Amino acid sequence: MKSQKTLIKLATALIVSVSLFSLSAPFALAAGKQDNPYGLIEPGELRVASLGDAKPYTFTDASGNFTGFDVEFFTDVAHRIGINKVSFIGQDFAGILPSVANGRYDAGVAAIGITPARSKVVDFSDGYLAGYLTVLTRKDSGVTDVKTLAKHRLAVVQGTLQENYAVEHFTQTDLVRFPDNNAAISALNNGTVDADFLDYEAAKDYAARYGLVHAADIPSFDAPAGFAIAKGNPAFKAALDKAIQASMQDGTWKKLYQKWFPGSPMPKQYLPHEG
Ligand code: SNW
């Protein structure tokens, strides 16, 4: 009799521990979500697709570290959502959005303008920059404005808004496509092309470095830059947006803007406001 009782006890213990084990599975899943609420590739880290040659937005310094307005602003936003490890990885511009959509990166950060077409591929955070697109040229090129672009060779980086705009509006101009800004600027400096169409702040930087001039500045306010993330992650987007607004409201955005874009007009909508 005694041994039968022991057997029953053993069996009960077995049943209890098996059912406890199966109960623990959903708990484990819930804990996983709690450790990684934004569904990041590596919990606690943000892996970011960016550009190494878009100064002063995103570029690598002499020691190969990523810096610039977008890099510092995104890093500040990341810290506000509790993520201290942010790794930027250089890409060709045309590769950024597809690889963010595929889940190879947690975000794409490179002064990427928010447009309806791009919003079919990725989700965007709230906007954080609104400025101009610039036709940059050499003093001797014969290009002095949009009209004189006709019959000239114009560099664009593949996949940019400049490429789309040029295809639509500069129909008499020969477009020459490049993978990145450095290649486009080299072509302008060595005379292979007559002008380069790029973001205003990047153009300003190259103008100062190489004695180039602005032939035209074209507003791109309808496509403010945003952080790109994979579709279908509303918790991540909501956290980024909340942090972006907090950074604008406490003056951090303004401080970074003045540091990286000295003398440029500041879009009012991103400055601290009352109420
Ligand atoms: O549409 C502008 C925006 O108004 C602001 O000036 C920052 O740049 C833009 O987002 C345009 N940027 C280009 C694009 O989204 C090129 C980006 C790049 O070369 N890094 O295609």
UniProtKB/TrEMBL annotation:
A GO-annotated cellular component: membrane
Domain (Solute-binding protein family 3/N-terminal): residue spans on this chain: 45-264
Predominant location category: other
GO molecular function: ligand-gated monoatomic ion channel activity
Domain Ionotropic glutamate receptor C-terminal: 45-263
Pfam families: SBP_bac_3
Annotated signal peptide: 1-30
Entry's localization field: Cell envelope
Keywords assigned: Signal
Assigned protein family: Belongs to the bacterial solute-binding protein 3 family.
Family matches, as PANTHER family: ARGININE-BINDING EXTRACELLULAR PROTEIN ARTP (PTHR35936:SF17), MEMBRANE-BOUND LYTIC MUREIN TRANSGLYCOSYLASE F (PTHR35936)
Protein name in the entry: ABC transporter substrate-binding protein
Species whose genome carries this gene: Rouxiella sp. WC2420
